[in-house]
Amino acid sequence: MQNGSPESPPSTPGVQLSADSTMGHLEVRGVGKIYDPEGARVEALKKCSLDIPAGDFIAIVGPSGCGKSTLLNILAGFDNLTDGDVLMDGEPLATLDDPPKPGSDRVVVFQNGALFPWKTVLQNVVYGLVVKKQMPESEANDMGMDLLARTGGLDRIAQVFPGQLSSGMQRRVEILRALINNPRILLLDEPFRAMDTVSKTNMHQHLLDIYDTYHKTVFFITHDLDEAIFLADTVVVMTTRPGTIKLRLNIDLPRPRNRHTITSQQFMELKQHAVSAVHEEAKKAFERGERELA
Amino acid sequence: MNEGKKLLNMWAGYLLTVTAWYVCVKWLPIPSFQRLPDPVTVVVEWFNPDPDYGLSLFTRDYYLHIWYSTYRATTSFLLAVVLGVPLGILMGWRAKANEYASALLGILRPIPPLAWVPVAILIFPGNEPAVIFVTFLVAFFATTMNTLLGVRSIDKDFFRAAQCLGAEPKDILKDIIIPGALPSIFTGLQIAMGAAWFSLVAGEMIAAQYGLGFMILESYNLVQYPTIVIMMITLGIVGYLSSALIRVAGNRMMRWRAQAIGIGAA
After folding, report:
1. Total structural domains in chain A?
2. Residue range(s) defining the domain that contains residue A173
3. Most buried one in A74, A111, A204, B121, CB count within 10 A?
4. Percent of chain B with pLDDT over 70
5. pTM of the model
6. Is A286 an 8 Å CB contact of chain B?
7. In what helix (H) or strand (E) does residue A42 lie, and over which residues does it extend?
């Protein structure tokens, strides 16, 4: 494994990636989402409430179709809600009257990856800075190179197109593309889903390195309980549709975490606690799936 | 398979075809085939400084015909690109534009180019613009449809990712829609170029005084059969070259699609 941990907080001129955890406090208050209210009325979310402190790493676990992606889409501004509201740092982010809009304070890393294949790694990483004309392009490029270099020497692939990279490498670049905008929240939508176990383990370490350095609020969706417990401060188990919060579990495993964490007694106890809740919901979802097919 | 062997097979393919042609014309007892020129006659005429029927590599008129056809095909093609690519992008980008245009295109597109010839001759002063118009139409439909298809095939997550990163609609057009549709656009351009030659020849046969298509029909009327074959082969070569040119241009504009492997595996 690469020793890719960024050693020092950013200090280059022009780089203003803050490592403080005062921003990114999310309050999800009684959020509901009904698709097609006039017709089929699919209730994806029902009275979802969550308080996510600034700088917290929260992992949402639940069976497929439980509405966890819907919640992420609402936070990202891709989808409106039909009940409740969301506050970010005390300001309304999404309300009934005011549908949310996407913005670079909440950047998404996508399940199947969404690096622009026609842009090089560097062009991808600095895209947010350049498109918002936040700084001259040369300055953005310097900042991008700096961030790449500090993340396990990724500056060596700066001029490569994403299609030439492994999916793990692509995902690391995509996380940096989000991070460079200094977002308040990183929204990760099952980013490691399609990966083999070894790549996944590597990616966990890379993500934790970034988290330990920058302390952004991370909203991480997964269906893998081990992954959730290993990475997060808080694991939230969602029920099957309509999605509500079934269980909120505080993960007090010490940081920095490494591969020994996953075999520790404490890890096992936490998993024990969560596994029955997850299993119950998975079973419900499965049975309903069978009913729907029948 | 190595390059040398590929080349060998290619020439073997040519040789086989030419042999079959020779055998059909010279040896098989089929009367109607015997009116056709055999390969040797064609080649001799083609390379003859003083050709029996007036056209060979050494005559000025031969190049004049090529020039006229190339000029018409290129003009039609460029018009199709200039009008078809923006229309296709607009249709893919704005739902309203699509509603206006798609039903109309759906009906106009299946009309064969030849069916347009009378209308074109009526509309335009003189034959030249009429032939170009008919040629343009086919190329235009192919370009528009493939551009639209290209825009539609762009992964929705790219749009969302760009929005997340702060892109405005004009940025999305420039950074997502155009580069994302480019592979399909170039496929469309290659089809358009092929289709342009296709309908150009048909148009020239009906309404022109110069050009490869005109000369093919003219040679038939004048019973100059070797010239027909010379013109057909010339058409094939020119058509192939024009497609190859588009392919090269496309590869240059889409370096990111060159599938290099082996760098930076995590």
Report:
1. 2
2. 115-182
3. A74
4. 96
5. 0.84
6. no
7. strand A42-52
